[in-house]
Structures are given as structure tokens and as C-alpha cells.
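Justification of computing resources. Each target in the renewal requires a structure prediction run like the one illustrated here; the chain below, 263 residues long, is used simply to show the kind of job we budget for.
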Amino acid sequence: MDTRLRKHSIAELFEPLTDLATESERLFPAHLEFTDPRGSTTSIPRFLFTGPGERSTFLRVGIFAGIHGDEVSGIHAAVELLRRLHENPDPVTGYELFVYPVCNPWGFSQNTRWLKSGADMNREFWRGSNEVEVLMLEGQLLRLTFDGIIALHTDDTSHGLYGFAKGHQLTRHVLEPALESASRFLPRNFDRSIDNFQANQGIIEQGYPGILGAPPTQSPQPFEIVFETPHQTPADLQTAAHIAAITAILENYRSLISHAQNI
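Resulting C-alpha cells:
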């Protein structure tokens, strides 16, 4: 059977994390739900993980995966990251993570890129969308004012890793070591043009309108990274590359912020 046609179960995906949360002082399920006037409920999974450190100075980062429901390596990376952090939280000292492993639950359950309406979720943000999932996540982005936003994707046209850098002026300096770290698992894309954008060493500083990101009015701007793995590579290596990238992003951003505060 073509694995691209397989449907997925959200309940099975999150059962291990739900079990871990019952014994954890740092991992908390806090799923989002919306019920329309007709009684139809839309749910988006969300987990909160608090690292060691003084909470009053925590950096708040949102990690978003499964925006396209058929890009499953980022979804599994988000779940595996939380499992590893439960065992050893030290890599996220000083952080409060809000992790949204499946932003497009219907798309994930049907193993399709699209929302149930047929829209591409990653072209709908901050454009007056009526899509419920988009409105729910826009509400999160408005209320939580993240210091950083990481979106995990896979690209079926790229032969290697690359990323989009937006927002805070430090973003490129955080994405570069993330690509370097992830390249232990998969090759990096050094093409001068990637996904129809000019690229430099696998980094793109433009982007499509409507992608998930911080509110246009947020100030100061957070760092915003879209990290892309090549879809036609082994899924386990994609997952490992995503986790390596996230870990490097958090480590380097924390270091750069600490350095800037001491100047």
C-alpha cells in the first residue's frame, strides 16, 4: 500500500505523551477547542513544556508542525522532542515551549496537505481568513506574544535542508547553526534558488504571503524560522534533522540573547 494514502490517528499519536504528562512536572497537555453554534467541535493539540530556570525570565517559543497534514516528519519530531525533554529538560533551560504538533488535524487524519475546505492553511494567516483552525492559531499568536516561532515542514521538490528566516535581526544567526547541526543527518540545499526564492547557503529571507507567523503588529518582533526537510528522504532522518535543528535554534538563541543583555 502506498504510505501516502494511509490515514492517521491523532489519539494513537498522542497517547504516549498523555501518559508521560501524568507523571511530569514540566509537560502539560493544554489542547485547543472551538465549538460552533451548530455544536461542531474543532480541536488542535497543544502541549506546554517548562524548562528549568527562573520562570519570570523565561523565553517563550512556539513550535508548530502539521500545518500541512501530509508532512508527518515534523509532527513526529515534535512528539519525540517532548518525550526526550521529559527525560532530560536541560536543553530548554530558560524556556517555556508551546508545542502544536498537528495544526491541521483533519489534514493529518486524511494524510492530505489541505484543510477540510480545500484551502492551503499556510496561505491563510493574517489575511482575514474564516478557517477555524487559522483563527484559533491566530488567537494563540496574538495572546502569547512569542519570543520565537519555529514551523516544521517538508518539501517534495528539494534535495536538501533549507529554511526561511524572518522577524528578529538575529534570526539568520540562529538558523545557520541549525542547518549545520541538522546536516549531520541529511544534506543541505546550497542551490541559489530554492522554492522559487533567492537563497544563500540554504537560507531564504523572503516568503509566501499568508504563512504562519507572528502578528504583523507585534513589537518587538520574534525570531521566525520555517525549517524544511527534503520529503524524498527517509522519514527517521527527517525527524532527527528537525529535532537537531530545534535544539540548535534554542541553544543559540538563548546564548545570543544572554550575550546581548551583557553588552
